[in-house]
């Protein structure tokens, strides 16, 4: 049975912010932490440790938000993970 851990990625704009739900769980069969999200289209990644998963999410989520046209290429706000 997987262990469920949830984290929030928040995108802040000058007028509003949005919160995206990301689920991370331990996949015992593969022996990795897996992160997915229904809020961030295309997010599916894994890492050997939860500590290694966090920086991957910091890199991947902004790229996916840009690719999915959620933020523009000139977006200068903060994205906190």
Q: What's the structural domain tally?
A: 1
Q: N- to C-terminal separation?
A: 26 Å
CATH homologous superfamily designation: TTHA1013-like
Q: Would you report the number of β strands? A: 5
Outline the low-pLDDT stretches: 1-7
CATH topology name, in short, is TTHA1013/TTHA0281-like
CATH class: Alpha Beta
Can you count the helices? 1
Radius of gyration: 13 Å
Order of adjacent strands in the largest pleated sheet: 4-3-2-1-5
State the share of residues found in helices, binned by percent. 10-25%
Largest sheet: 5 strands, antiparallel
**Strand coverage percent:** 35-45%
**Dominant shape:** elongated
Annotate the secondary structure layout.
Layout: E1 4-12, E2 17-27, E3 32-36, E4 44-47, H1 50-67, E5 79-80
Antiparallel strand pairs: 1-2, 1-5, 2-3, 3-4
Structure description:
There is one protein chain. With about 80 residues, the chain is α+β, with helices and mostly antiparallel strands. It has one domain (about 5-70): TTHA1013/TTHA0281-like (2-Layer Sandwich). Helix content is about 20%, strand content about 40%. The chain contains 1 helix and 5 strands, in the order ββββαβ. The chain has one helix at about 50-65, and strands spanning about 5-10, 15-25, 30-35, 45, 80. Strands 4-3-2-1-5 form a 5-stranded antiparallel beta sheet, covered by helices on one side. A hairpin with a 4-residue loop joins β2 (about 15-25) and β3. The two termini are about 25 Å apart. Mean pLDDT is about 85; it is low at about 1-5.
């Amino acid at each position: 049975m997987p262990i469920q851990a949830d984290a929030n990625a928040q995108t802040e704009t000058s007028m509003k912010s949005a919160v995206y739900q990301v689920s991370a769980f331990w996949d015992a069969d593969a022996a990795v932490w897996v992160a997915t999200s229904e809020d961030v289209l295309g997010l599916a990644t894994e890492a050997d440790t939860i500590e290694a998963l966090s920086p991957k999410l910091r890199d991947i989520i902004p790229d996916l938000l840009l690719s999915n046209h959620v933020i523009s290429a000139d977006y200068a706000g903060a994205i906190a993970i």
